[in-house]
């Protein structure tokens, strides 16, 4: 994650997706959270993006996804306009952007987090190259995190290795609503063996977008209670991460996952993204945990797919359990084998 920006016209980065353990649900102002969140990045689920700048006629954006021209151009143009106050030179160039995912676009993984994370890292490197700054600095990562947040809120947590917090909390004075900060010190070693089996229940388009879901929290009857719950949970989860308390980790992570979906089911209008197979997977995970005494938990993003979290020392037993009892409830028997990641990677030019 180090390097010096030399080429002011070309940058390429690989950025992972992340999975939130403490969920943020609800926005205020521009892409700022109503509560703090805590997540970890994945290792095998990432987006790789290259940005090339050139001057040739009228300003335009060419966006290619998986080698094909994409209609994502409009969202990118809107994003570039939004960040032009911070990076004025974006108005002077045309953009040719190539992007690809290591996972299926419809796999239920937060592709916007890895996509805008990778794009923000490219733009930050190009910006530092224009100004002659070194990229091997805390300023670089903070700037990249803030640019990522302006594209997709959760993307700001993807620019760091391991665990990250986004949003103001009492845990650290450096916590901010504008960017995420890394949790790089004091984490118990057991949590760096965290694995994530992503059980793909339904790869179809969500019935309600995440943006609409966040808006539903504006007038939600339980908004204040939810913010208070998230504040308590993030403090308790951080303590569990420091002490290696797997039991507390499991309790809080599952409470957060179900609270997120409870907010969806009690909003007005209400909606439900979980499927019958999602609920069956949750039941089987809990039964197996109780019977085997293997520490494992589930979490869920804003969709039907289940993230089965477990620890490296239990890998063989858990994978056998997945093959034996869970694959029948996954779409086409598919799941993604992932783990806590080492963060973004500069892919050179």
List keywords for this structure.
single chain, 349 residues, alpha+beta, Ribosomal Protein S5, domain 2, 2 domains, 8-stranded mixed beta sheet, 4-stranded antiparallel beta sheet, 8 helices, 14 strands, globular
Précis, in short:
The chain has 349 residues and is of the alpha+beta class. The chain is 35% helix and 23% strand. Helix 2 (111-131) crosses helix 3.
Notes on the structure:
- This protein has 349 residues and is α+β, with helices and mostly antiparallel strands.
- The chain has two domains: 10-186, Ribosomal Protein S5, domain 2, CATH 3.30.230; 189-339, GHMP kinase, C-terminal domain (Alpha-Beta Plaits).
- Helix content is 35%, strand content 23%.
- The chain is built from eight helices and 14 strands.
- The protein has helices at 73-83, 111-131, 138-151, 210-215, 223-243, 246-265, 276-292, 315-326, and strands at 10-22, 27-28, 32-33, 37-54, 61-65, 68-69, 94-101, 163-166, 180-183, 194-199, 296-300, 306-311, 335-339, 345-346.
- Strands 1, 4, 5, 6, 7, 8, 9 and 14 form an eight-stranded mixed β-sheet that branches. It has a four-stranded antiparallel β-sheet with strand order 11-12-10-13.
- Strand 5 (61-65) and strand 6 form a beta hairpin.
- Helix 2 crosses helix 3 and helix 5 runs antiparallel to helix 6 (246-265).
- It is globular.
Strand content: 15-25%
Number of domains: 2
The top-level CATH class of the largest domain is Alpha Beta
Oligomeric state of the chains present here: single chain
Encode the helix/strand succession as letters.
EEEEEEHEHHEEEHHHHEEHEE
Task: Tell me, briefly, the overall form.
Answer: globular
Major beta sheet, specifics?
Answer: 8 strands, mixed
